[in-house]
Design brief:
This protein is an alpha+beta fold. Helix 8 runs antiparallel to helix 9 and helix 11 runs antiparallel to helix 14. The two termini are 31 Å apart. Among the domains are: 170 residues, no CATH class; 159 residues, no CATH class. The protein has 18 helices and 11 strands.
Length: 490
């Protein structure tokens, strides 16, 4: 199979990576091949059978032209700085230009140890790799910028965590793997020239409109903050909790990256945490906008010597203004997205209060986040049954509904058109945690991919209500949801 690889990262940023070879798996078996994504990337996979694809995307063989490297980066992990992290179980094979003209990384995850593994095995298990597949494809269908899985291959060997598990390699596609932590790696070492090269490479790859400007490095901070504001607002509206928002997991492309201990919440509550390692709730649902701002502040620190090379301290006020402005930019994105979800035609003062009152009501009543938003569309058509049934005390809903109906006056669209537009913005199907776990257990423990494939098929059309799929729309029973935790898989 031919892949037209380029290697601009390796070519232009020597010192930012280490050459590494993947381990050779004993018995690679294709569990999932994303034919749609392969076509989008322009891969000529049609001539390859499943066995060949399994060899090529597990490390048993390397696609022609691949030059695997492990990327270097640092990172603040739960607030503590680790000056040297890097790809401990990932390898960048190279870059391709997709059919739309965009440069995309193709990388392995779980293919074995690298110089950055820090005594780890560098391997991955079937369950966590399928989680990344499911969550990434769900985010893609929801319109949220994301990395995606091209392939998941079982390796035929065990990996050892709490117990032996089936090993797997995931092939991840990303706009790039440039992270805040990549900049931190060189800032910590005082390598100003590498920082400049890295910043200009990032600009050329993701923000080419800034290239050549005298203020391009401050503008890079502003542009990255804008993308993060839009991204986190989408996470919040979807009820998505990343779970491990370390600086090495903030992609400068503005994509969601690294689906480890992540999940979608059922009952709406700002303090919701799923990650088994987030003991203090640092990365709780409601904290995500503030953590994004914190991470961007760490990014700003790395850029100060580039913004004002002769006197980095003089760049602090301008960089600080960008960071302090993040909250307003996030709020604007959050409100703009909310108005669509609420079926509103225009922007008016008081919309933020209307939205906050809605979310406060959901939290107080313990109402399912996704279904509440979805069933609100029924109210636009005068149908109250499904939404009211979500509330333990339905009377508590009525005062807010009166405000919401009043906000729609004067009405410029027919009620049915408003409801239809709201349903296009509010999904019915998300990767419900109990269904994800059910699918992962079937694949990991019994080799049964049918539940995963069925779930993926539903999630590809999250906004279209379909007969016979009620179980995919409903949250888990309270006894299953209580105490639910997700794990990194490392």
């Amino acid at each position: 199979m031919r892949i037209a690889f380029d290697h601009s990262y390796a070519r232009e940023l020597p010192g930012a990576w280490e050459p590494t070879r993947p381990d050779t798996p004993p018995a690679p078996e294709m569990l999932y091949w994303n034919a749609e994504l392969a076509d989008e990337l322009g891969l000529d996979a049609d001539k390859a059978d499943a066995a060949e694809l399994a060899r090529l995307f597990s490390g048993a063989e390397l696609p022609a032209g691949a030059q695997p490297i492990a990327q270097a980066y640092a990172g603040h992990q739960f607030g503590g700085l680790s000056p040297s992290l890097g790809d401990g179980r990932a390898l960048l094979l190279g870059e391709v230009t997709d059919r739309g003209g965009a440069r995309r990384d193709i990388a392995f995850k779980g293919s074995g140890p690298t110089p950055f593994s820090r005594r780890g095995d560098g391997k991955a298990a079937v369950g966590p790799m399928l989680r990344e597949l499911i969550l990434g494809e769900a985010m893609q269908a929801l319109g949220i910028p994301t990395t995606r899985a091209l392939a998941v291959v079982a390796t035929g060997e065990p990996v050892y965590r709490e117990r032996p598990q089936r090993g797997a390699v995931l092939t991840r596609v990303a706009a790039s793997h440039l992270r805040v932590g990549t900049f931190q790696y060189f800032a910590i070492r005082g390598e100003a020239e590498m920082l400049r090269k890295l910043a200009d490479y990032t600009i050329a790859r993701h923000y080419p409109e800034l290239a050549g400007r005298d203020d391009r490095h401050l503008a890079l901070l502003q542009a990255a903050a804008e993308r993060q504001a839009a991204l986190i607002a989408r996470w919040m509206h979807a009820g998505f909790i990343h779970g491990v928002m370390n600086t090495d997991n903030m992609a400068l492309s503005g994509e969601t990256i690294d689906y480890g201990p992540c999940a979608f919440m059922d009952a709406h509550h700002p303090d919701t945490v799923f990650s088994s390692i987030d003991h203090q709730g640092r990365y709780a649902y409601g904290n995500q906008p503030a953590i994004a701002q914190w991470n961007l502040a760490r990014f700003a620190e790395t850029l100060l010597p580039l913004i004002a090379p002769d006197d980095p301290a003089s760049a602090v006020p301008a960089a600080t203004a960008v960071i302090e402005g993040f909250a307003d930019r996030y709020r604007e994105h959050w409100l703009a997205q909310a108005r669509v979800k609420l079926g509103l035609d225009d922007a008016r003062g008081g919309d933020d209060a209307l939205l906050n009152d809605w979310l406060t009501l959901l939290a107080a009543q313990g109402v399912d986040h996704t279904l509440a938003w979805r069933y609100l569309a029924d109210e636009a058509e005068g149908k109250s049954g499904r939404l009211a049934a979500l509330f333990p005390a339905p009377d508590a809903l009525e005062p807010w509904l009166k405000q919401w109906h009043a906000r729609h006056v004067p009405r410029t669209r027919r009620p049915t058109d408003i409801a239809a537009a709201m349903r296009r913005a509010n999904p019915l199907y998300i990767p419900r945690n109990h269904l994800v776990e059910e699918a992962l257990a079937a694949a990991a423990e019994r080799g049964d991919m049918a539940p995963t494939l069925a779930l993926l098929e539903v999630l590809r059309r999250p906004f279209d209500e379909r007969d016979g799929l009620d179980r995919y729309a409903q949250p888990a029973a309270a006894e299953l949801a209580e105490g639910y935790r997700t794990f990194c898989g490392t």
